[in-house]
Amino acid sequence: MSRSISSKLPDVGTTIFTVMSQLAHDTGAINLSQGFPSFEPPEGLTDRITYHLTHGANQYAPMPGIPALREAIAEKTQRSHGRSVDVDTEITVCTGATEGLFSAIQAVVHAGDEVIVLDPAYDSYEPAITLAGGITRHVPLQIAANGHDFGIDWQCLKDTINANTRLIIVNFPHNPTGAIMSAADLEQLAEIVRDTNCLLLSDEVYEHIVFDGEPHRSLLSHDELWERTLVVASFGKTFHATGWKLGYCITPAPLTVEFRKVHQFTTFAVSTPMQHGVADFLVSDPDFYADLPAFYQQKRDHFCGLLEGSRFRFKPTPSTFFQILDYGEISDDKDLALAKQWTREIGVASIPLSVFCETPFTGKRLRFCFAKDDATLEEAARRLCVL
After folding, report:
1. Could you read off the pLDDT of 148-188 as tens digits, one per residue?
2. Fewer CB near the last or first residue (10 Å), C or N of the chain?
3. Residues 205-253: pLDDT tens digits?
4. What is the dihedral of CA 11, 202, 356, 24, to 10 degrees?
5. Which three-class secondary structure state does DSSP give residue 278?
6. What would the DSSP string read from start to end of 306-336?
7. Cα distances (Å, whole numbers) of residue 242 to 145, 156, 198, 247, 280
8. How far is 37 from 319, CA to CA, in rounded Å?
9. Which element (helix H / strand E) includes 348?
10. How far is it, in rounded angstroms, from Cα 360 to Cα 126?
11. Has residue 1 got a pLDDT over 70?
């Protein structure tokens, strides 16, 4: 018997990351689209995971995460952001940041609540809001006069907040633009939400990949913002291991209670040997993530240097491992069509920015991942420079 299914996400198709990675695979193109490194995690980390795989750490972990990893996260949070957090009541280990973001949204958003996202917005936010019965409101980031820098339009954000606004999602360091927050930005955000009931969800998966001597200014570091914030972070980007799907959520105890109510039925527990291995490595090599800015800045500078003679316009990204290139002097085509065309014709896959926006930016921009070995970047740049 045929049964019709009414979709809960009728406007959602396959994510652009899957589409472009599959196209790169099918055509043999260099994949600078999906954001995964082409190099391996540190050997000391994989050694510890292997040890725990063969020494009995293969059954369910505690639902909030193993104590040793939560303790290591607490120590890292104190060192990195100056925030002392309770190991038992304010940290939950997640199956990657995506699960953390999903569980956070389901925990606090009720039917009819409004949630503000900043465009370009990571494509998992709005489907999660919709599934919670919420309504997504889009506030575009501002483009500076130089055409390259992006920032929050504070007046537009303020005007969008109303009595139904339940949550504001911020993502800094920002994917895909690389924008970062200043100390003044944190103060401005605090002022805007001060007399509201808005909660904040801060996606900080690129927290350790910020360049040119700038710090990452986490919402954890701001006393007033911390009280209403759920911060989601990831070890996948930090340890070059995006396939491990290991992240965490830090939030005050009352919000943790609600977060865990959802988390326990979304995933219950995260891979036990992975947790033990990461906990060991955070203790034995606490400065590994401190070296990431220099590591990825070298990749950024190398890639940008290779493109200096091209027809692309760009400014080196302030953070993440993505570089935005403006192709306006090369083509008038729309970014999605052009990204697919160039994947097939020149063999370099990228990500169009328009798919992350309710109203696309003016200008023509594609995102390229430079978390690759130098030979891959050099060949990709050679192909791009002939355009």
Report:
1. 789 999 999 999 999 999 999 999 999 999 999 999 999 99
2. N
3. 999 999 999 999 999 999 999 999 999 999 999 999 999 999 999 999 9
4. -100
5. helix
6. HTTTSS-B----SBTTEEEEE-TTT--S-HH
7. 35, 34, 31, 10, 19
8. 15
9. strand 348-349
10. 16
11. no
Tokens for 309, please give them. Answer: 């003679």
DSSP code at position 349 = E
Measured distance CA(262)–CA(92) in Å, rounded: 12
Quote the CA–CA distance of 97 and 231 in Å, as a whole number. 10
Residues 234, 238, 243: CA angle, nearest 5 degrees: 65
* Residue 288 three-state SS: coil
Report which of 205, 186, 63 is spatially closest to residue 124, judged by C-alpha positions: 205
Q: Are 133 and 112 in contact (CB under 8 A)?
A: yes
- Contact present, 146 and 315 (Cβ < 8 Å): yes
Domains and CATH numbers, the chain: 16-41+292-385 (3.90.1150.10), 43-284 (3.40.640.10)
Angle between helices 272-284 and 43-53 (to 10 degrees): 140
Q: In whole angstroms, what is the distance from residue 301 CA to residue 281 CA?
A: 29
C-alpha to C-alpha distance for 45 and 56, rounded to whole angstroms: 17
Say if CB 229 and CB 223 are below 8 A apart: no
Tally the residues of the chain: 387
DSSP string, 1-51: -------SSTT--S-HHHHHHHHHHHHT-EE-SS---SSPPPHHHHHHHHH
